[in-house]
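#struct-pred

JT: dropping the chains for the assembly here, can someone run the whole complex?
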Amino acid sequence: MTTIDARGLSCPEPVIMTRKALKSKENRYTVLVDNVASRENVTRFAESQGFRVKLTEESGQYRLELSK
Amino acid sequence: METDVRLTKLAGCAGCGAKVGAGTLVSLLNGFRTRTDPNLIVGFDKSDDASVYRLNDELALVQTTDFFPPVVDDPFVYGQIAAANALSDVYAMGGEPKLALNLMCIPEQMDAHTVQEILRGGYEKAYEAGAIISGGHTIHGAEPLYGLAVTGFVHPDRVLTNSGARPGDDLILTKPLGVGILMTAAKAEMAEPSVLERICLQMKTLNKAARDIMVKYPVHSCTDVTGFALLGHSYEMAQGSGVSIHIDADRVPFHPEALELARMGLIPAGAYRNRDYAEKGVRASEKVSRELQDIFYDPQTSGGLLIAVPHESAGALLEELKDRLPCAEQIGWADTPEEYSVYLEKE
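RK: done, full complex below.
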């Protein structure tokens, strides 16, 4: 499973990274972000590409688990 | 004109999306000692577009400033947009800009031609506005910044604040929304060049024509829709005016491409800050999709005017505006105060 570490980056960079990673056509990805806008935007992007998103938060860091 | 520098790569945030949230600003300035002056018609406490100071019975001074990092790669277009955006606050008060000062920050390694092109854009817009750039201040820094400090004039009895809307007014918006989302998509190289060209043309369009037409009508209130988005600025207008504002989501003009791009998460961080700030005062119908709400929270760079005008005059004003600004629409109305400040409705 591919992990995309987009911590420390602001929009639209995390979406760009996720979009590139999704080209590998896997069924599961993990995306790490550290701000609300990136969390929301990556969630929206993943959902628009047919993924379900499971969110866990730990001290201001967000782990998004994408699965089909 | 071609340039070797991708200006937007040097920018951390997109245009008015770089603006610090309204809530943050209010708390930062809370408790400072300030002087009161009866001639200060509009000051910071009003959360308005510009400050207004009465000089005599015929003349009031309008002052404002605005600057931001590059929103487009063409330095000339960037300069034009930054200047149009700064000048807009004077128009939003019903005034006319007269003097302007350049505010500029440039990386030391930036070539002279690029810097000159940014400034040329600013001078061109100031000239079109009938204003004179009489000086300025330029410093070195990592991220380029450009804008203007603008001084204008208005008749003290004809100041258009954002707190004058009355129940029964219609609301008119003069430029379509979605610019922040489209510029975010452009940064991700997911926006069509033709769309970018369209929004650049819109952003560099002065609100002068809208202002010149508006002042011929008995307008009650006006603000420009910029960093705080349609809903943030509507919220401020409703709060300041003591009215409720009803927006008909079907009538609000926006760039259609922004809808799909919002669904794909190409939304500037400022839109989430705007939602945080205004959401408590906004009641959105379940029929208004998340993407459409995103567009209404999307920070606009050099956005249009939001005008509150009595219903009886709204038709004629809109018709005259449409001759010059075909995207202008009547998007809602003001009513007596209700539980929420802004109601977002949809058929």
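JT: nice. Strands of chain A lie at 2-5, 28-33, 52-58, 61-67. The longest helix of chain A spans residues 36-48.
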